[in-house]
Structure prediction request, 233 residues.
Amino acid sequence: MKIWTTASGYTITRVIGGRCNVYLLSNGGKHILVDTNLSRYRHTLVRSLETLKIDRLDALVLTHTHFDHVENAAFIQKQYSAQVIVHVSEAEYLRRGNTPLPSGTILPTKILTSLISKRVQSHFAYEPCRADIQADDGFSLRSFGFNARLMHTPGQSCGMMSLIVENEIAFVGDAMMGVYPNSIFVPFAEDASQLVRSWGKLLDTECTLFLPGHGSPVGRVLVEKCYRRRVSQ
Ligand SMILES: [Zn+2]
Prediction:
């Protein structure tokens, strides 16, 4: 498992990595999980937490409610007594267990999403989960024992949130991706120009490392480059 440490000693562990990332933010005995992956990886998630000797989580932050991030949310809430935190605009999707999928932003994904009918959408339904906290921009995680705050970074989904830790490292969900070389753009988004504005918002922090929901960590230089390229178009 890949581990990062912040200047003041918080640890970040990538509990599941690769196609769909799950991260654990720890400060001593306090733990926050970020996203949950697909239900078919539930045993991997449980095993990884077991290896880390974690049987209780203080909170589960959902960057957004697309199925590939929330399929284990209800399970984590129950099994680890985690307080589930989600953006206020997606709490109802989570309660229903069904979140509309975003449209394509490039030709192949535009064609793909135009072929996906409403009926197919139901295949992406997941186990419903009640949000304990419906958060919005600026929500502080101080009461959970962390110098961290949530930032509303919409675009890929309406309620996308990034978790800014000590103004140093940000968990960004699908506000950007670490999948393609020299690009952080996401192939699906509800509003692509809003997505780019969210990059600007993330660059207003002093964060140097951005941990995406999919793929490898992204450095600040690449975010700046992609942001400049998009705003000058
Ligand atoms: Zn995703």
Notes: The chain has eight helices and 14 strands. The chain has a mean pLDDT of 93. The longest strand covers residues 11-16. Residues 226 and 232 are 10 Å apart (CA to CA).
